[in-house]
Write a structure and sequence with these properties.
about 200 residues, mainly alpha, Four Helix Bundle (Hemerythrin (Met), subunit A), 7 helices, globular
């Protein structure tokens, strides 16, 4: 949804103007930020168990690191395939840790644990397929940016859900978020599947 839009362009412009120069002065490398993003996601998962508000904030920080590493790499001329591969792999672990934390929250308060477990498994599968369809499409020479639940949107929604919980401290906030993710990730995955399949058939 945000990929390729003016919102994304302005966001990266802000990063390049205000954040990246500081990182350059600190002599940080893109991989440092990728690993820092992973650390923030682990902290997000831990915090979600007892404090969804802080879980949400660390989730947003993790997303910030995920976008900063690419901006920094382009600025200092260190955009490498190895770095992109590392970033993609860590992204998968990032979401895993966050959703494990959310599951831990529901387990702690004993709220529909079995249903939540099923929801999270299906969400992680849908999220994985969103990324896989894009990667497979690009491997076949097709761009695949369609869909409403790309990684950026997923991180923003997860982070905001934790913050909303601070003002409305009820399990329904996170429970409803899981249902939104279940539908959003799997619909996006199918949308991408149909889009790429149509494009490939047009080329034949």
């Amino acid at each position: 949804m945000l990929k390729g839009t003016i919102i994304e362009e302005r966001y990266y412009d802000i990063l390049k103007r205000f954040f990246v120069p500081v990182l350059v002065k600190l002599r940080l490398e893109p991989n440092h930020l990728s690993l820092l993003g992973l650390l923030f996601s682990i902290l997000a998962g831990i915090c979600y168990v007892h404090s969804p508000f802080w879980g949400g904030n660390f989730t947003l920080l993790s997303g910030l690191m995920d976008t900063l590493d690419g901006s920094l790499a382009r600025t200092i001329g260190k955009s490498r395939k190895a770095g992109a591969f590392l970033d993609s792999v860590l992204d998968r672990y990032t979401e895993l840790f966050i959703f494990l934390g959310i599951w831990g929250y529901f387990y702690r308060i004993n709220y529909s644990v079995h249903l939540v477990s099923v929801l999270i498994i299906l969400i992680l599968f849908g999220s994985l397929m969103v990324s896989y369809t894009r990667a497979r499409a690009e491997g076949l020479g097709e761009k695949c940016l369609v869909g409403l639940f790309q990684r950026g949107e997923r991180i923003i929604i997860l982070g905001c859900a934790g913050i909303v919980y601070f003002f409305l401290p009820h399990p329904i906030v996170l429970f409803a978020t899981l249902w939104i993710f279940l539908i959003g990730t799997n619909v996006t995955a199918f949308w991408r599947f149909a889009h790429v399949l149509r494009k490939l058939k047009q080329r034949e």
